[in-house]
Amino acid sequence: MWTTKTFLTKTKRGNILKIVREHYLRDDLLCGSAACNVCPHKDSEISLDAEPESICTLYDYPHYLVLDSNVVLHQIDVLEEDALKNVIILQTVLDEVKHQNTAILQRLLEIIGSKKRKFYTFVNEHHKDTYVERQPGEKQNDRNDRAIRKAASWYETHLSFGTVDGKFPKVVLLTDDENNRKLAQEEGIVCSTVKDYIENVTGFVGLVDKLSKNVIPETCSKDALYPAHLTPSAIQAGIRNGKMYQGTFHASRENFLEGTASVNGFEKPILLQGHIGINRAVDGDVVAIELLPEEEWRKPSDIVLEDKADDPGDLLEEESELLKTAKPADKGDDDITPTGKVVGIIRRKWRQYCGILLPSKFPGATQHLFTPAEKRIPRVRIETRQSEALSSQRILVALDSWPRNSRYPRGHFVRALGPIGDKNAENEVLLLEHDVPHARFSEAVLACLPPDDWTIPEEEIAKRQDLRPLCICSVDPPGCTDIDDALHARVIPVSSADGLKRYEVGVHIADVTHFVRPGSALDREAAARATTVYLVDRRIDMVPELLSSNLCSLRGGEERLAFSCVWEIDENAHVHTTKFHKSVIKSRSAMTYEEAQIAIDDDKRKDEVATSLRILNKLAKKMKKKRLDNGALLLASPEIRFQVDSETHDPIEVQNKKVMDTNSMVEEFMLLANTSVAERLARDYPQCALLRRHPAPPQAFFQNFLKAAKQQGFDLDVSTNKAFSKSLDLAVIPGRPYFNTLLRIMATRCMQQAVYFPSGSKTAEEFYHYGLACPIYTHFTSPIRRYADVIVHRLLAAAIGADVSHASLLDTKQADSLCDNLNYRHRQAQRAGRASVALNTHILFRDRVEIEAAVVLAVKRNALQLLIPKYGLEGPLYLPAEKFLYNEEEHLQTCGDVVLKTFDELTVRLSLDSSNLQHRKLVFQLVNPVIPGFSYEATQPEPMEVVEVTDKELQQKKRKEAAESKASKKKSRKSK
């Protein structure tokens, strides 16, 4: 049997088009219940128990639950618990959830896929007895509610047929829609709100805590603290007529009463200040902004707010303090920033947040404040009866709503992550907060892998260039197991017409795409993860370890599949020819940077590996000089390496990463490979080549940096990257070797992010990579750890005929979506890496206090932002207003004869403050210059914790000596 569905749609020209589609209905769709004597079920098709156990005291009889769409959308955390079983999910609900939130749909599908949960999907939209037509003038939501009621009623009737003594499972409809519930009751359907049902569930402690709190309508808030948000239609009208702007809200890490929103058409982000200006926007939300009159535009605040553990209640008293310091700027002031206010929320970007519960002042209280780990997120009011058990735990909380009459958003408890301070729990927090996918690879993904003992088939070798005889080697950091790249170089014996010596140079990259095929579960997982994430003590792989550390890793002495880029280069580092081919290689050696440097520097070594490395190093230096002469920037960032205890994996010491010529050597040839591949892809795929660009920073980004450099006597030219590079080279202070590095670190922070993009979305001029001074660039050299490189490999393979093309590669819309995810995951991976360094530094300082050199990165109204070069760590040194005078124009802090400015070198005392469990932080105390009554004076011995470090190191030394002694005795026995 069939019926018709009619749709009205609007064409681009404004015409109304009527679309009629056939909609087939069936009478043989199964209900899924073991209690049914009507449907011809097979055992594999039964999902619902014949006598489902009731766990809700409201209903003392067996029953199935039918959920409406909003229950799924808002109560997914409750549904993921094991409490609710024998649940009927209607197709109407699935379709609506898919339309509104794909992330929740995925979570629901995982629940349905779990056999023990007894969730059954009923295709009510294609059953002749449950399908309902949309009536004239009826809203889609009302039609869906009617379809859900129809299906619930049908189940009740259907199950009553063929049962003995009238005993059959009943149906309870869960809905929080008051109108839907009223109509259901009129139709004789048993129904309940989610809250009423869950509060009467027995045997599942803490389930009530997971209930999402109801949203209070904007117009119904009493005692409102905030202005009402505009309706979607009012926002759209405001944006269309130019009275409002759309932007993504970014909260400040230093000041929770301030944030910005990047808006098209404005060189500077729009400044949003105070509770009213931010108006309940949360970091990441897409908001509607109304600009304030120009006379009300302000400078960004220069106050660093300290963490406070107390609860000020539903008051907005900090507002006046912030606005006192954020005075309107003069019209000629370079720091003046367009200032606005949030008038509506276009799209919430809420997620689940990690943090801790603040202790309540009232014994037995159920209302508590949750403090998120991420400083940019406001505290959250939650209701829980488990506060005593959760007070020592890191927990996960979801946001539900933010009523106008509440200073804080409302949310609900999701789950506990582990004890506060436990390293595994803290790492879990770190990964969740940075949205790093880190679950174990699924069975579907692992099923895509070859066997552990896989070797290269002969037929595969026959398709490729056999480069196994070449002297190829890899050069990587110590301990690296995911080796993406290897190199070779040899002299071309034939003399050239120009009389210059020529070399064959090759970069060989792991052929990950041989194993990761398009559309497979492995490919989908790699695309979702997008990048490998490196933490201090672990690595979160993009692809399973069998590939990342074994079959794709270019280990020494083992045959591997590769994608090779081979050039003919003369002794002046000029490239004459470029070739790409799939290959088979056998690396002679997997070396560290230090081992490669030793081989280059050892004049006695005349072997092939050393000779090849010397050729590569010589050419790399010339290539680097050309790049720098062309305007490439040598920027810097604080990079450190932890020494980790082999047993506990806790950090025991830290040191700066050593940079050698071999680091630069590898980098130059990776840059050359990436550039060569980018040129080929842009030529063959002008619309869908995946490229990487680095936009030039607006001049406004350099203002504070240039002012600080001028205080040190340097007028830097930032008009072009070439001029900037030259002026950075000249900015040297004799006796301060770290100054130029610090200048480059600061310069890095003035840059915009480099981003992936499809070539068809930009003009050729916009391809430019500012930092590398390169007209076109991509990522080809790290497919084990970057999904962008996987796509680039597929495009290049299709371009040279080494593999077939795929429709998805040529889909420009899909390419845009892919690049958005790549850029997001790349940023989050970088932030997670920095957070891991901070976490391990805190662990390192649990038992120690140190006096260290520091440099001033920024001067604020109430603090100096400091960098500790040894640890690559930053933090504030708070300055009391009664002692220090702040010069707002020059960004100076003065106390008597002591004047502190950006780039100044100080000495500080470092210790860990654990009084705020949520935000443990390093405390900076000034040691030098000496300011009486403020600087730290060592009048007494440091705390005993310092001794504990010595004991720990002594124990480690003893263990090491014992191990060496045991090894020595064993060796002695063997020699006998």
Textual characterization of the structure:
The chain has a five-stranded parallel beta sheet with strand order 5-4-3-6-7, sandwiched between helices. Strands 8-9-10-12-11 form a five-stranded mixed beta barrel. A five-stranded antiparallel beta sheet has the order 15-14-13-16-17. With 976 residues, the chain is of the alpha+beta class. The chain is built from 25 helices and 38 strands. α12 (423-433) packs antiparallel against α24 and α19 packs across α23. β16 (393-401) and β17 form a beta hairpin. It folds into seven domains: 31-194, 3-Layer(aba) Sandwich (Rossmann fold), CATH 3.40.50; 218-310 and 330-347, OB fold (Dihydrolipoamide Acetyltransferase, E2P) (Beta Barrel), CATH 2.40.50; 352-420, OB fold (Dihydrolipoamide Acetyltransferase, E2P) (Beta Barrel); 443-691 and 760-833, no CATH class; 697-751; 848-943, OB fold (Dihydrolipoamide Acetyltransferase, E2P), CATH 2.40.50; 945-976. Its cofactor is Mg(2+). Residues 950-976 are annotated as: Disordered. Keywords: Cytoplasm, Endonuclease, Exonuclease, Exosome, Hydrolase, Nuclease, Nucleus, RNA-binding, rRNA processing.
Cα-to-Cα separation, first versus last residue: 91 Å
Structural class: alpha+beta
Please summarize the sheet with the most strands: 5 strands, parallel
Q: What number of structural domains do the residues give? A: 7
Number of strands: 38
Poorly predicted tracts of residues: 940-955, 968-976
Order of strands, main sheet, comes to 5-4-3-6-7
The helicity comes to 25-40%
> Total helix count?
25
User: Beta fraction of the residues?
Assistant: 15-25%
